[in-house]
Automatic annotation (TrEMBL):
CDD domains: TS_Pyrimidine_HMase. The active site is at C196. This is Thymidylate synthase. It comes from Halalkalibacter oceani. It is an enzyme of class 2 (transferase).
């Protein structure tokens, strides 16, 4: 993953200061690409620990076509909590302490941070236990799972883009239409967070499956290591179902940025020496990508440096 560290250095050296939706501020570059050979190992960052279980259960959530946080909370996966929480605290139903700009305020005010954690815990428990609440405030709208598995076309039909890709690989591996698109202009108002990784495409050559994914906006420190691992896992799963080996994973980013409150963490990470990549083992009995569960995945030889904590910008 030396390429990822080179990207971090590039953004620090060439990035420009930009404001952003969250009010945090970033150092940003426009346009960057990395190519990773998946035959060299599973590209999970080693200069800090990246929780593979969270990467995998999030992808499984997408593949289920799910958009409700309940599944993720049942898996003890909290990487999307803040967006559902925001939906609740901005509603008329919320009557607790003022949570305006909770993302920034929780970083700057320890007393407020405790209030925020209390309200977030209430939110999480209600999503898990209250069906009505979960339906109203646990659903994030037409985000990745919906777009991947139930794309609504202008013709009024619903399309499963992942199933189409798998079927097309099997019948026509040279197809240039092995593409999934999550960006729908008409759906943006119904999405708690518009897709950051908005499209991906597959390519078959010499018995190997390669994937290129595109990102309109990319948090380099927290988001990108997850994105790389997620699309590597997706490529492994589709290759497994289609009896192919894995090839390359290609990342193309547009607004590639480091948040201003992540700079110290990035610098700490850059002082560390990368370690050997792990390998991924899939359950050989797994037949369909849509049946995959956490127990079907085994990561072998992952020996990263310790985790580095940082606040997510909401």
């Amino acid at each position: 993953m030396k390429q990822y560290l080179e990207l971090c250095n590039y953004v620090l050296e060439h990035g420009v200061r930009k404001e952003d939706r969250t009010g945090t501020g970033t150092i940003s570059v426009f346009g960057y690409q990395m190519r990773m050979n998946l035959q060299d190992g599973f590209p999970l960052l080693t200069t800090k620990r990246v929780p593979f279980r969270l990467v995998a259960t999030e992808l499984i959530w997408f593949l289920k076509g799910d958009t409700n946080l309940r599944y993720l909370l049942e898996q003890n996966n909290h990487i999307w909590d803040e967006w559902g929480f925001q939906k609740w605290v901005e509603s008329k139903e919320y009557t607790g302490p003022d949570m305006t700009n909770f993302g920034l305020r929780s970083q700057e005010d320890p007393e407020f941070e405790q209030l925020y954690k209390q309200q977030l815990a209430i939110y999480q428990q209600r999503v898990l236990e209250d069906d009505r609440f979960a339906e109203q405030f646990g659903d994030l709208g037409n985000v990745y799972g919906k777009q991947w598995r139930s794309w609504e076309g202008a013709d009024g039909q619903v399309y499963d883009q992942i199933q189409y890709i798998i079927d097309e690989i099997k019948r026509n591996p040279d197809s240039r239409r092995l593409l999934c698109n999550a960006w729908s202009a008409s759906e943006l108002k119904n999405q708690q967070l518009p897709p950051c990784h908005y499209a991906f495409q597959f390519y078959v050559h010499d018995g190997k499956l390669s994937c290129m994914f595109q990102m309109r906006s990319n948090d380099v420190f927290l988001g990108l290591p997850f994105n790389i691992a997620s699309y590597a896992l997706l490529t492994h799963l589709i290759a497994h179902e289609c009896n192919l080996e894995v090839g390359e994973l290609i990342y193309t980013g547009a607004d590639v940025h480091i948040y201003s409150n992540h700079i110290e963490q990035v610098q700490t990470m850059l002082e560390r020496e990368p370690r050997a990549l792990p390998t991924l083992k899939l359950n050989p009995e797994l037949k369909s990508i849509f049946d995959v569960e956490w127990d079907d995945l085994e990561l072998i030889g992952y020996d990263p440096h310790p985790p580095i904590k940082a606040h997510v910008a909401v």
